[in-house]
Structure formats: structure tokens, C-alpha cells
Amino acid sequence: MDRTTLLGIVIGVTSLVLGFVLEGGHIGALFQLTAALIVFGGTLGAVTISFPWSQLKKIPRMLKEAFTEPKRDPHKLIEELVELATVARREGLLALESRAMEHPHPFLREGLMMAVDGVDPQALKQILELTIDTREEEKLRAIRIFEAAGGFAPTMGIIGTVMGLVHVLSNINDPSNLGPAIAVAFIATLYGVASANLLYLPLANKLKARLQEERLELEMMLEGILSLQAGEHPQLIQTKLAAFVQGRVPAKAEREETAYAQAQSSRSA
Amino acid sequence: MDRTTLLGIVIGVTSLVLGFVLEGGHIGALFQLTAALIVFGGTLGAVTISFPWSQLKKIPRMLKEAFTEPKRDPHKLIEELVELATVARREGLLALESRAMEHPHPFLREGLMMAVDGVDPQALKQILELTIDTREEEKLRAIRIFEAAGGFAPTMGIIGTVMGLVHVLSNINDPSNLGPAIAVAFIATLYGVASANLLYLPLANKLKARLQEERLELEMMLEGILSLQAGEHPQLIQTKLAAFVQGRVPAKAEREETAYAQAQSSRSA
Amino acid sequence: MDRTTLLGIVIGVTSLVLGFVLEGGHIGALFQLTAALIVFGGTLGAVTISFPWSQLKKIPRMLKEAFTEPKRDPHKLIEELVELATVARREGLLALESRAMEHPHPFLREGLMMAVDGVDPQALKQILELTIDTREEEKLRAIRIFEAAGGFAPTMGIIGTVMGLVHVLSNINDPSNLGPAIAVAFIATLYGVASANLLYLPLANKLKARLQEERLELEMMLEGILSLQAGEHPQLIQTKLAAFVQGRVPAKAEREETAYAQAQSSRSA
Amino acid sequence: MDRTTLLGIVIGVTSLVLGFVLEGGHIGALFQLTAALIVFGGTLGAVTISFPWSQLKKIPRMLKEAFTEPKRDPHKLIEELVELATVARREGLLALESRAMEHPHPFLREGLMMAVDGVDPQALKQILELTIDTREEEKLRAIRIFEAAGGFAPTMGIIGTVMGLVHVLSNINDPSNLGPAIAVAFIATLYGVASANLLYLPLANKLKARLQEERLELEMMLEGILSLQAGEHPQLIQTKLAAFVQGRVPAKAEREETAYAQAQSSRSA
Amino acid sequence: MDRTTLLGIVIGVTSLVLGFVLEGGHIGALFQLTAALIVFGGTLGAVTISFPWSQLKKIPRMLKEAFTEPKRDPHKLIEELVELATVARREGLLALESRAMEHPHPFLREGLMMAVDGVDPQALKQILELTIDTREEEKLRAIRIFEAAGGFAPTMGIIGTVMGLVHVLSNINDPSNLGPAIAVAFIATLYGVASANLLYLPLANKLKARLQEERLELEMMLEGILSLQAGEHPQLIQTKLAAFVQGRVPAKAEREETAYAQAQSSRSA
């Protein structure tokens, strides 16, 4: 369960609705079926035209992914890869066969199996990199659906409001009703801008952040597999893999750098 | 027949029109000839200036492409390429001559013919990559016509509305008529924004998604041709080609990865 | 004469003006000197600040280029290059000297002359690529003037309209005159948006499309010169050069691919 | 303490508030709780959905970084690196061990330690470059939170204003109150645009400028470590490192270039 | 003196003011202190937060650069470099020492000195390229200040106008005063949009155009230094350097190409 996704939606929607109610607004005034039809139907239409079915059918899976939090632990992964490298170095690559075959992670499993099977390092690297790239590209294409929805929704809101104004202004006999009618027309803009900025675009952002972490994990696996295939020293492999997560825990490092800079500047004063 | 293209247009247009009618609007109020002339004529003009005739004449073909769905089956393609590689390895490249000559796909046919004819691998790679790139570039240029139309249409809508307001405000003698006249002026904005967001831009998106799949297919063919020319083992070729579609069927792989992450995190708990 | 440039302007302007007149507007209402002064003068000023004189003075030449259509024939060019390669292979590079010296195209002439003069292939490649790049960059810089004008014009239109409104609202004594005065203020927006979207931006697009074709032609010449200098077989040179235009005539190829896809999908059904 | 960050906020906020007050506005009119709730709550919600917790928790550290100014002195750093290189060249890499271990800067310390430990130059380069890249990427991801807030805030302002207008227009019984009510609705737009343009976006800019300087420092260290490991002459190392800061003190160089250009042009006159 | 910068500002400002006056506007209505405070103070604040002091202090120098025109003459530069190469080839690199030391251009001087000092070609290339890149990056960072101001100014204008409207609408007792008060509020928008589009953005454009020419000059010097160090034939160096400016004088070349295209098309007719 990724708490920030749900929490963010709750914070956002609550702030908007509460703000409206505290101003004295009637909560019922925010619900309007025709505006919803225009904005959500229009966005759905534009998205459906934009993407092939093979992409569209991934929406539920991507949604689920945005709300669940994978528990990646790169440090555990480094440990595991170093251990595998130690075995490979001591007992040969073949000694990894049973562990590779049973490994729960499909990328690591297939990569290790190919290394065990003696696939040429050059070819192995090419295959694993291509796998990472196509996987990322596939996910990016699904994420672009949310970005497209975030682009279309506000324009559908504008269309809904303009249509409302066209309707209102064409039948302007009763000026006393003008205000409420325009208010209704504005609801479409509200739906369009709010759905884009509280749903589609933030979800796309979250999914992209997730994808980046996933890619990092796969790249660490790739580096680990190639290094153990090359028979590199486990210590060196550890150092290499640690560089991938160097940026992750810079709190202490940063304090030291700040201290360094301060010391330097006091010396120069 | 690409059902999503047509379906999306139906969903989008129906949502907009239905929303307008349910609000009590007169469907006739949405049709206005002068607005259509300004928006569609203006967009056509801007697009015609923007592109040379050699590109403009591709519009009908691109439109047709957006509404038809090619039945690409990358797994079948892999099978075929592996089979060709098996023949080439067993009986030599010349054994492929008749199959190459008769192959229905022009890129594969010409690529195989060149391999059979003994074109130098380096040159073959250069030629096939250049072919893929120029084909993609050519299609992208045609797709940019739709993107350009999607950029010009809303501005033409604004021009139409401003011209309408100029007309209305210059002849403001009869204030009772002001509302309906402004309503009419807004129709141009409606046409501009709706045509861009329900036609031009989504169609450009669809065509780009299509192009990406096409490119993937050609790249698989390229990899297959070069690999069989190099006499690589069919098993390796299969593995290489499978990496292209790894990202395509990740449902099972993803479940495994999730299970892996969960297991890892429970272990760490 | 590039008919699409002129035709597009005619279509665009006619659509706008006709739409306005059909709505009952007075054509004279669209002409207003002060709005023109603000929008076109302001755009001219912003563009003049933006670019050095060495770029600005290219505007007339670029305009002329947008309205004339070069008759490039890549197939003829291939023929010519292959013929030159045949001569070079049979009789040696020196046999090209007189043809090179008299060649009407300066890039081809100078490139051939250098090849004949025995310039080192590496250096020749570097020089010709640099020539292509700097030529493209120079043209792009001039095209960016039109793009900049297309960016500045609508903002100048907004400035004109806001200034008009400032003037109108400061002297609001006569409310009966308010409508026509606001109408006049809107003309500036009209000029700004229309000039950007019917002139500056489409012309920049056309010039970029032209530039792309020009680059392709120069790259074909580069490839041809280097290949004939290397003494490659004319047949191979022809195949290589054909890859540049493969994307150009894909009508037949595409029909075949569609047929291939259909056949494949029926087999899989 | 980075004075420009605080100073800029003071200048910006003072200018806005003072301008409002000088126009005769009541300062109290700028404070409105419901608008603040909608804009800041909505932005917080959108940002919370957009980023995983591992990024969000970096906000306080990034904020602190935006307000403090590191005293980097690239010239001191060059001095130090050249001195280290001199020692390494004279007494061997091992002579650096104690200095490396005690070095306050973590990147330099670890890089030097690896050089002393005899890590292969190729591997050392790969590890240090990866460290720089992942650190930069990690910081960029945190900076993108501010950029996202700067993108969401104005749209939340629009949402707040539209909701205010919906409320106002639905209860239009008392037209005398219409003005002040609309004024209140506009406060949300004010909050959204001002928070984005006086806080989120400028802070993101500052953090990116800071990041660029940090990267430069790390790249100088990388170059220094690799050069001293390769046993290059300290003089050459100094020249190389000086090139990193060449662009930093161009005042004198520029004057000379100007003089050169002037001289050249007078000669050509 | 770069005449186009000043001329452009004069053209732009005159057009706007003259247009306003010709429409019957009072020139005094365009001056308003509070709007200026909000727009220019707000922009200054946002820019001050955005950039470190080390960048901000370059503003005056960049401004001066935008208004002065360097008299670069690439053809003279080629002449000079070819002459230096001739000397180096005939009498050896050392013969350049005195000329190098006295050369007024710092980049050329230091580059030649290093070549004379026998710096390894690989290292020399790396150092000179790094110098060019860091110089360009440093200048770009300063130019981005103007671009940032051009982005912030219009939003500050919107803030000023919204604040003005808030003030006006809160005190709507005197409707007769409504028009002039709104007019005053619009002045802020005017300042924001006009300062961005007649100052900040065009100046950034000009500075970037200038930077591009500067880079070209430095790259020619780099090429020249490396070539003369390698002892290449002056004739070849001349041809190489000429390729940098090939794009600069294409008038004749283009006429020839047009003639070529015409001839070709008439032959094909």
C-alpha cells in the first residue's frame, strides 16, 4: 500500500471541498451530471482515440501499481549479488545453476541462467540491456496515457464551460437566472482542471518515479550479473554496486561536505 | 479496423453533445457555418502553408492508417526468423534465396536478398538502419501535420470568437440580442478546441503509437537478418529477439517481481 | 513557385474574412491602423532586438525561399552519383576532374574536387559533414526569426488590446460607446494571433521542412562522394543511396506490408 | 546563509504588498483562510500523490540547502589536488593513504582510498562517474518536487477562484455584494500564482544552480583523482583543472577579446 | 555598438506608445508607480531567489554585451591561423613562441603556448574543449537570468492586475469609478507582458546569438591549433576552417543550387 498516493488524494480533495464549504458553498453545487459527462466522457474519448487497445488495457494494472508500494531494498540486493559472486568465484558459474533456476525475480533468474549457460558476455549484455529498455519503454507508453488524460481534461472542461455559456446566453430571457446558470457552466472547468491536477498528472508522476527506481534495480542486477560472469572480485562488485545507491543516503555525506566547505571557507577568511 | 479510434471519437462526440442536450441546449445551436468556415478554413490554410505538397498528400493515407489496425504478431515473427536462421545455418545462406524472393514483407525480403547476395555485414547494417530511420522520419513528418493542426485549431477558434465579439460589440444597438450573439461567437472556440482535442491531437498520438510498433517490428527483422547472416545459433537469436517483446507480456513477470519484493520485505521485517 | 505556401495564405485569409462578412460584419471594421502599428511595430522591435543584423538581413531571402519550390529529384541524383562512381571505378578518380570542375552544384563540385585532389578520406568526411552542419545551423538561425515573431506577435496583440481597454475604461463617460470601443481594442488581439498563426509560424514550418529535404540531398551527396572515393562497387552505392529515399515511396511497400500482416493474422485466426 | 534567497523573498513579497497598500488596498483583504486552504492544501495533495515518500522527506533538507550558501572555492580545490598529485608523483600513491583516510570530503576521501588501494583505473572511473550521476539524479528528483509544486499551485488557484465564482453566482440575490465576493474569489488565484512564482519555481532554480556547482566540484575531484592515479605531471593536472574554472573569471579575458576584436576591425576598416 | 538592440527597443516602444496615443490615449495613463513596483519588484525578487550571487553580478556585463557589437571577422581569423600554420610547418612549433606570447586573444594565446610547450595533443584537445564548454555554460547561466525574468514578469503582471481588481471590487460603492480603476489595474499586465517581450526575452535571444558566434570562433581556433600542432598542410587547414564559415556566405552557393535544381527539373520535364 503506497500511503502517499491515497493520502495525497485525500488531502487534495478535502482541501478543495472544505475550502468551498467554509466559504459558505453548498456541497451539492459541486455535483453536476452533465459537466461530468462532458469532461470525463470527452477525456475518455480523446484517450481512447490516442492509444491502441494493447496500451489501454494496462490502465487498471498501472492504477494498482500507483497505489501499492514495492518494498525494494537495494542494500539487500547488493548483499545477494555479492554473495552470488562469491559462490561463482569460488565454485564456478555452474554452482549457481540451482539458485538461478529457483530465483523468484524473473530478470535475475533469466540473466543468471544465461550466464550459467555460457552465453557470450557481449550477447548477454546486449540482451539484458534490451530487456531493460523495452520494459521501460512499455511502461512509459502506459504512463503517457495518464499524461495525455491530464492534457485533455482541462480542455474538455473549457469545452463544457463554453457549451454551458452558449446555452445560457442563447436563452437570456430571464436575467435573474443568469448567475446560477453561469455557475453551473463553470463546474465543467472545475472538473477538468481538478481531475488533471489531482489525479491524472500526479499519478503519472508517481508512476514515473516508480519506474525510475525499478530501472535502477534492474541496472544493478545487470551490473551484478555481468561482473560475476567476468569473475570480478566480490569486493570490487560491492563497491561498484554501492555507487548506484550512493546518492540514496547522502545525509551523512552531506553533513561532512558542508563541514568541509565551512572549514575551507574559514581557512580562506 | 482499429476499433479504439472510431470508438473514441464516438465516445467523445456523444459525451459532449449529450451533455449539452441534457443541460437543455438545442442541438441546432451547435451548428454554425461561419464559425466552421473560420476554424476549419483557417486551420487548413495554416497547415497548407506549413507543409510541402509531398507531405500534405499523405494525409488520406495516414487517416486510413489511424482507423485500421495492423495485426502484428511479434511472436510469429520471432518463429519465422528463427526458422530462417535454422535453414541458413544448416544449408547456408543461399538456401534462403527462393524464400527471400517470395517473402511478402518488403523490408524482410530486401534485407534477406542482400544477405543472400553477400552484401558486406557492415554495409548491410548501415543500409537497413538507414532504411528504418528514413521511413520513420518520413512518417513522423506526416504525423506532424496532425500535430500542427492540433496547435493551430484552438487559435483559429480564438480568432473566430474575437471576430464574432468585434462584430457584436460594434453593433450594440440592441442589447437584448447581445447574449445570443455572444453565444454564437463562442461556437468558434468550441470548434477549435474540440477539433484539436477530439481529432487532430489524438489521431497524431495514435499514429505515433502505431509508428513505434512498426519500428520495433523492423528492428526485430534487422536483428534477425544480421544474426542469421553472422551464422549465430538459432537458440541465441531466439533469446535476443525475445528481449524485444519482454516488455510486452510482463503480467506474469510482474507478479513474480511483486512476490519477490514482498518476500524480501517480510524477511527484512 | 511553391503553390502550397501561397494557396495556404489565400485559404486561411479568405476563410477568416469570409466568415466575418457572412456573419454580417463590416470588412472595414477589421482594418485599424493603431492596432497594426502596435502589433507589427512591436513584433518588429522584439525581433530586431533578438537577432544580430547578420541574421536579420536574411529575412527577404528566406521569404523568397518559402514561396519558391525547388525541384529536387533524389532519384536523378542517385543516377548521377552512381554514374560518377562507375567512371571513377573504371578510369580512376582523376577521370572525374573535368566533370567535377564544371558541376553546377557547389557542394558536389567542391566535394568531388577534394576527392580528385586526393584529400584524405577522414579529412574529407570531416570537412563535408562540417559544411552540412554549419549550413543547416545558419539556416535554422534565420528560421528562428520567424518562430520568434510567431511567439512575440500574440503577446503584442494582448498588449494592444490591454492598452485599448485601458484607454476605453479611463474614459467611460459615454457608456453607449463602450461596445464599439472594446471591439476596436480586440482588433489588436486579432492581428497578433492571426499574423502568428497564418504567417510567421506556418512559414517557419515550411522553411524547416525545406531545410530537412535540403539536408537529405547533401547527405546523399556526402555518402556518394565518400563511397566513390573508397572505390566501392556502383551497385552497392546505388543500394546505399536508395535507402535514403526508401521512406519516400512507401505506397507499394506499405500495401505489401498490410497484406503481409493480414495474411499473418488470418493464419493465426 | 545564502543571502540572495532570503533577500529575493523579501524584495518580492514587499513589492507586492507595498504596491497593493499604496494603491489604497487594505492589507487584511489579502488574507483569506479558505483560499489558502484550497491552494496550499491542493498543491500539497497533488505533490504528495506525485512523489514517493523517500523523495518527499527530503523537502526540509532541500529547503535548508536553498537558504544556506556553501563556500566552494575551486581555486583552493585545485591547489589541494595539485599538491596531492605532487606527493603521489614523488613518493608514490601509498604516501597519500593517511591524508586520504582523514580527508573531510567523502567523495574525495573514498576516491583517493580506492586509488591508493590500487583499484583498476577503468573501474575507478566507472565507479566515481556513477556516484556523481546517481547523486545528481537523486537531487534532481527532489528538486522536481518544487517544480511540480510550481506547476500545480496556479491551477489550484484557478480551481479556488472558479469555486468562489460558482458560490457567488449561485447566490446572486444581493447584487450589491457581488463585487466584494468576486474580490474574495480572486485571492485564490493570487495565492496560486504568487506562491509558484515567488517560492516554488525560484527555489527550484536556485537548487539547480547549486547542484550544477556541486557537480562541477565533483568532476574536478574525479579528474584530479584519475590524473594523479595515472601519475601525470602536476603542472598538466593544474592546467587541466584550471580549464574547469576558465569560464568563471572571464572578466579580464573578455576585455582582452574585446580589444582583440576592436583591433581586428580597425585593421579591416 | 550593436545598433539592432537599441534600434529594436526604440521601434518596439515607439510603436506601442504611438499606437496608444493615436488611439486618443493620454500618455500619462501609462505610468503608474504601484504597478511598476509590483511588476519590477516582483520580477527582481523572483530572479534574486532563483540565482546565486555569483551569477546575478554578471547582469551588468551581459547587458553591456547585448548593446555592443563585436567585430568578429572569421575570414581574417582563418588567414591568421593559416599563416601561423605555415610558420609552424616551415620553422617548427617553437618559432611560434614569441607570436603566441604576444597574441592579444587569450584563448588563442594560451592554446598556442601549450602547443609550443609540447603539451600532448590528446590533453591539449581535452583542455581546450573543456575551456570552451565551461565558458559557454557560464555565459548560458547568466543568459538564463534574462529568460527567467521573461518568464516571471508576465505572471507578476497578472498578480498586479488581480490585486488591483481585488482592491477595486472590494470597494465597489462608487460604480462610476469602476472603469478607470479597472484601467489602472490593467497597467500591471501591460508592464509585465511588455517588459518580458520587449526587453528580457529579446535580450536573452540576442545574447544567445552572440554566444553562438563566439563559440564558433573558439572552435575555429581549437581546430586551427590542433591542426598546426599536428603539422597538417596549411592548404588543408584552410579548407577545414573554411567549412566553418561555408554556411555564412551561401548567397552565391544558393543561386547555383537553385540553378542546378531548375536545370535538373527542366531536364526531367
List the helices and strands and how they pair.
Five copies of one chain form a homopentamer.
Chain A: H1 3-22, H2 33-50, H3 53-56, H4 59-67, H5 74-91, H6 97-102, H7 106-116, H8 121-170, H9 178-229, H10 234-245, H11 250-268
Helix pairs in contact in A: 1-9, 2-8, 2-9, 4-9, 5-9, 5-10, 7-9, 8-9, 9-10
What's a quick, concise take on this entry?
Chains A, B, C, D, E: Residues 104-220 form the MotA/TolQ/ExbB proton channel domain. The structure is a homopentamer of 269-residue chains. Chain A has helices at 3-22, 33-50, 53-56, 59-67, 74-91, 97-102, 106-116, 121-170, 178-229, 234-245, 250-268.
Keywords:
disordered C terminus; 11 helices; 269 residues; homopentamer; mainly alpha
Question: How does this structure look, described?
Answer:
5 copies of one chain form a homopentamer. Chain A is mainly alpha-helical and 269 residues long. The first copy, chain A, is built from 11 helices and no strands. The radius of gyration of chain A is 27 Å and the shape is elongated. The two termini of chain A are 52 Å apart. Mean pLDDT of chain A is 89; it is low at 265-269.
* Number of continuous helical runs of chain A: 11
Average the pLDDT over all residues of chain A and give the rounded result.
Answer: 89
SSE order of chain A: HHHHHHHHHHH
**Relative helix content of chain A:** over 70%
CA-atom Rg of chain A in angstroms: 27 Å
Say how many strands of chain A there are: 0
| Class by alpha and beta content of chain A | mainly alpha
Q: Distance N terminus to C terminus of chain A?
A: 52 Å
Biggest interface reads: B-C, 66 and 77 residues
Quaternary structure annotation: homopentamer
Taking pLDDT < 50 over at least 5 consecutive residues as the criterion, the unreliable ranges of chain A are 265-269
Question: In percent, how much strand structure appears in the residues of chain A?
Answer: under 5%
